[in-house]
Specification:
Length: 176
């Protein structure tokens, strides 16, 4: 067996896997258009998409564009909302869903170019997410069973059922 003939393709494959994504300025990342929902899961994800209200700090931006270029983010220094008060190109909400303990869990995630809390050291890149818990997305009228927004630490707030002032129809109102 010619090991040399196997070695060169193996090295080439490893080199291709090690290619890094190109980073571009945080305010140059073009968001994806929301696709038309087709499946019950997709329809539920659009119907129950939360509304994120920002009280202070950075606003959400797209993390990646159609070409695979990613946001370079911003340094976690300076004012908490410095250079990130909202993208003129639009924002992006990412979502995935799965059955978990007999409930349909839809996780929505938003990307922020930096996180600079008032009394802590800031950091480049931050993600905030919310899990909306439904009884069944295939029902004619799925019901929100709970809402779990992420917190600043690695835990979640849990609202089961969510308070009335947290909902506007099928939309969870999340303050950040």
């Amino acid at each position: 067996m010619n090991l040399h003939a196997l070695f060169i393709p193996a090295v080439a494959a490893v080199a291709l896997c090690a290619v890094e994504a190109v980073s571009i300025d945080h305010d140059k990342v073009q968001p994806f258009a929301q696709p038309e929902p087709v499946t019950d899961s997709e329809k539920a994800a659009v119907r129950f998409k939360p509304s994120l209200q920002i009280f202070s700090g950075c606003h959400p931006y797209p993390a990646v564009n159609a070409a695979g270029e990613t946001s370079a983010g911003l340094k976690g220094t300076g004012p908490s909302s410095g250079d990130c008060k909202g993208s003129g190109l639009g924002s992006q909400v990412y979502a995935r869903a799965v059955w978990y303990s007999d409930l349909w869990a839809i996780m929505y995630a938003w990307y922020f170019p930096k996180d600079k809390p008032t009394f802590r050291k800031g950091e480049r890149h931050d993600w905030v997410n919310v899990v909306v818990w439904l009884d069944n997305p295939a029902l004619e009228r799925p019901t929100i069973i709970g809402v779990s927004p992420s917190s600043y630490v690695t835990t979640y707030f849990k609202y089961t059922p969510p308070p009335a002032d947290m909902l506007s129809g099928t939309t969870s109102m999340i303050n950040y």
